[in-house]
Design a protein that fits this description.
Structural class of chain A: mainly alpha
CATH topology of the largest domain in chain A: Tetracycline Repressor, domain 2
Number of strands of chain A: 0
Strand content of chain A: under 5%
Oligomer: homodimer
Radius of gyration of chain A: 19 Å
Distance between the termini of chain A: 61 Å
Order of helices and strands of chain A: HHHHHHHHHHH
Largest interface: A-B, 43 and 42 residues
Number of helices of chain A: 11
CATH architecture of the largest domain in chain A: Orthogonal Bundle
Helix content of chain A: 55-70%
CATH class of the largest domain in chain A: Mainly Alpha
Shape of chain A: elongated
Number of domains of chain A: 2
Largest sheet of chain A: none
Chain lengths: 195, 195
DNA sequence: GTCTATATACCGATAGAC
DNA sequence: GTCTATCGGTATATAGAC
């Protein structure tokens, strides 16, 4: 597939399939998954809806292509947790890995954070463990036998790391190193009880 | 179904209009605003879609009836900020008022947090300042002339307070007093640079 | 206030020509 | 790979009887 002139907008080196995914990320992030029609995605790419279906079998398949890499990273981390003993050091390591993983998926961050219901609705059947993963992460973070305050602090710490997914909006020019350092420190301080 | 004097039919002390709103909150929170049809809302109440339109002029009007109280509280706080000088004490007071306000709207918390894009899309024209309010709050919290780290810490602190809106999921049985105390302390610790 | 019935529009998805 | 054309379904919203 080479670059084309006229109404075609395919850039050399980037396949139509990738262009569709990128346009969909942009659209889904601003308008939401359900609020965006495949006709709008196709228009943004410069093709028709029928052509889009040549590359993706369904709207959900397109969403999966967008979400799956981040989802796989998150699952890989969560499934390790059972074998990691809960200690101040391991907490720091797990949080570091998590915030690092989130930063590497920043482009789809807003989509994940602000359109969660639609995504869960669309992918809930395909990934039944989707909801449980966040819960397991919070639970491990709180530690065994955690009381209500500790559980709440763990949930709040996860919220802090969620700020990484929206850092393109809040601090667009900040380096990943700064974001990782600051959010890790912030999350750790949330986990500590009042001084 | 006992009719009462004046306008409005009352079922067990609750008007049909209120019943519609409550059913919509429940449905929108679990399925999302756009994924929920007015037919589903009407079915949950036990009326038809056409009857629902007698009480609410449109789907967006129904959403407004749900969201507006929280939105008004938030705006009232944000519009005071210009006159509040930035000090450790005023930061604590503003955060306290904000988390208190959020806790009082916990029933629509999940809807606001997990379906933001759909809500902004539906109400964006009606409330143009919706997006800006969060930004102004973050900016005030960071203080005048804030650098990137401080700005990021302010955004993360706001994320922590957002945990209040999902506390029904994370710590269903916790008291409002506990949640308010813990999240306020957590948010304040996020704002402080590394020790 | 609630109903039945319907207008109108757009959606996801498919068929088949080129 | 991309197109035109269309199917079947469902959505919001309305009209008018009771």
């Amino acid at each position: 597939m080479a670059a084309r002139a006229g109404s075609g907008t395919v850039v050399a080196g980037r396949s139509t399939k990738d262009a569709i995914r990128d346009a969909a990320v942009q659209l889904f992030s601003t308008k939401g998954f359900e609020q965006s029609s495949l006709r709008e995605v196709a228009d943004a790419v410069g093709i028709t809806k029928a052509s889009l279906y040549y590359h993706y079998a369904s709207k959900v398949d397109l969403l999966i292509a967008i979400i799956e890499p981040m989802f796989d990273d998150h699952r890989a981390l969560v499934e390790k947790l059972d074998e990691i003993p809960h200690s101040p050091q391991s907490v720091r390591e797990v949080l570091t890995e998590h915030v690092h993983s989130m930063l590497s998926h920043r482009t789809i961050g807003v989509l994940c954070m602000r359109d969660t219901v639609a995504i869960v609705n669309a992918l809930g059947n395909r990934y039944p463990d989707m909801m449980e993963m966040h819960r397991r992460m919070c639970q491990w973070l709180a530690g065994p036998g955690a009381d209500e305050e500790t559980t709440l602090r763990a949930a709040a710490a996860m919220q802090v790391l969620g700020a990484a997914l929206m850092s393109k909006e809040s601090v667009p020019d900040a380096s990943e190193e700064l974001i990782e350092r600051v959010l890790l420190d912030a999350a750790l301080s949330v986990l500590e009880p009042a001084r």
